[in-house]
Specification:
Elements lengths: L2 H23 L2 E2 L2 E2 L4 H13 L12 H4 L1 E3 L2 H4 L12 H4 L7 E8 L4 E12 L2 E6 L14 E5 L3 E5 L4
Antiparallel strand pairs: 1-2, 3-4, 4-5, 4-8, 5-6, 6-7
């Protein structure tokens, strides 16, 4: 057999193996997405059923006027499976003073940051709280700022243990 053909076959095999390994790392096999599992599908369907839009979205900060905004994680949970899943409304209704909640801030470049807020006043679906950490690259916010958030903004709950 011609040595050029053997060399070409070896190169092809090496390239195919390399591509297979790279696609496997990224969760794809030769261009086909690995998709989401059944549990994640059920989670997405649940949040589609539970979602209630924010009645007055203009009352919350917007990037255009404030330089940041709160992500409506309840809306994004309809298309993105969170791990762990975001709290359902029944869990959010149990939030009390001194509990902490994690929210997602979007900055001018629409980059997301997660921050903690300690609840000072709970009046479901609205919560007044105090920012517990200073976000990066959002000059308009710093630790101890007072915020009003909506139940749809809550990504995670950390109950007060006292």
């Amino acid at each position: 057999m011609d040595p050029n053909i053997i060399a070409l076959l070896i190169v092809i095999v090496v390239v195919v193996l390399f591509l297979f390994r790279e696609h496997k790392k990224s969760g794809k096999y030769f261009g086909k997405s690995s998709g989401i599992d059944k549990k994640q599908e059920k989670q997405l369907e649940l949040f589609k059923k539970l979602y209630t839009p924010i009645a007055d979205p203009d009352s919350f900060p917007m990037i255009s006027s404030h330089g940041y905004e709160f992500e409506d994680v309840a809306l994004s949970a309809q298309t993105v499976p969170y791990d762990p899943p975001i709290p359902i409304p029944a869990e959010i209704e149990t939030i009390k003073t001194k509990d902490q909640v994690k929210i997602v801030l979007l900055d001018r470049e629409e980059e997301a940051q997660r921050v903690w807020v300690e609840i000072a006043l709970s009046s479901y679906p609205y919560f007044d709280g105090i920012l517990l950490n200073t976000p990066f690259d959002i000059e308009e916010l710093c630790e101890n700022d007072k915020l009003t958030i909506h139940a749809n903004h809550i990504l995670q709950i950390k109950p007060n243990r006292e």
